[in-house]
Amino acid sequence: MTLLEIEDLTVRFGATTVLDGIDLTLDAGERLGLIGGSGSGKSLTLLTILGLLPENAVASGSIRFAGRELRGLGDRQLSALRGDRIGMVFQEPLSALNPLMRVGAQIGEPLRLHRGLTRKQAKAAAISLAERVGLPDPEHLVRAYPHQLSGGQRQRVGIAMAIATRPALLLADEPTTALDVTVQAEILDLLGDLVAEEGTALLFVTHDMAVLAKVVSRVIVMGQGRVLESGSLETLLHAPDHPYTRTLLDLARAASFRRTESAVAQ
């Protein structure tokens, strides 16, 4: 069943077109990757789905989620979907988290807002979610503030918040970019396990083909606000058609070689 369907999505800032006729579909439980360099439009696509474009942006086209047209909905209606049926994991969790709020309260907030849990119930759920995403000593950690956690721990908090309501769709915007290689691998494994357990559809944004290869089954390559190529992960890895896709693969291989050299040297 098609969960998300985007047709001819175009976004302009004044005379500048930043998304140009984007088409994509995502089935329930499917894992789809959006890949491209800076300015390709991949992250902007996620923000458009969520209805979080700046006021000076003008969007056209269609975005249907579970058969419901999202384009044209008011902020109140979109807010009812965000954090409930659609979860979001951001690139830099420190900027996405409230620095003045304990992490347990932040993990439990979607459940209080969308499920009507009491403060006590939300705290218990937050501890359970913290444990589920692999945070150490959950009962103690939920009382900490974001700045007291490591980068990997903060990203796990962000993931716990995103999956708290068991959303049908999880959007992930380069969630491992700011992490070192070891922690990056742990977070990718965690995301893969969680969406598999819940049957959640995943739309994963990155600039790194090697990262995509660990979490998705189908890929859309973007450049300058357009879809350049799409297909199964296997096809794009072994028989890419567009020169830009081949460049991304070359960069991924070079990065992998450098990591291997570094490991050998140590």
UniProtKB/TrEMBL annotation:
One of its GO terms (molecular function) is ATP binding. It holds the Pfam family ABC_tran. Its main location: membrane. SMART domains: AAA. It is a peripheral membrane protein. Residues 4-249 form the ABC transporter domain. This is ABC transporter ATP-binding protein.
